[in-house]
Amino acid sequence: MTERTDADPTLRYSISVEAMERELRLCGFALLNHYLTMHHVIAEHVRLQPIEVLILIATTTGNVQRAVRTEALPDVLRASTALPPDLVVPMSRRAIARVTGLPTETVRRHVDGMVRRGVLVSTRKGVLAPNRLSEHWAAGAVLRLLEAHADCTEQLVALKAIAPPPPRPARSRRT
Question: I want to staple 131 with a disulfide (CB 3.0 to 4.6 A). Which of 2, 35, 82, 161 is the partner?
Fold first, then answer.
């Protein structure tokens, strides 16, 4: 079980290529299971096909790239408040195809359907994923995604494929 705490944001995990290769099947299983859990959590609330989940994730990520730079996002916008339009970058269908590896025609067909259903919004400059963070299910879904990520991380730590950073040495007090 994952414990919820306020964590130190400066911690970094190290990757052991040797342990990953030794436990390749189990590492792969943990990561793929995590991906499937992510798909399930998202699809359960937005009702999408697997390709559409991939397109939504790519679009959402592309839309907010400018905003998620730490120095660009004011504290007031860090929760579920909609981002100002100048921080949201529409994605072209071609860019979505490039990021996802899907054929452009496949992306176009799915994006058009997603726009008709209100999952995406089409603009002159590309498509946008509407802000869903204020919807009643969003916080619970993000929490489930974080828990799934933590569970996957714990599995990879148990396999010694990744390792938490060593404890920081205690600061000595000079008197």
Answer: 82
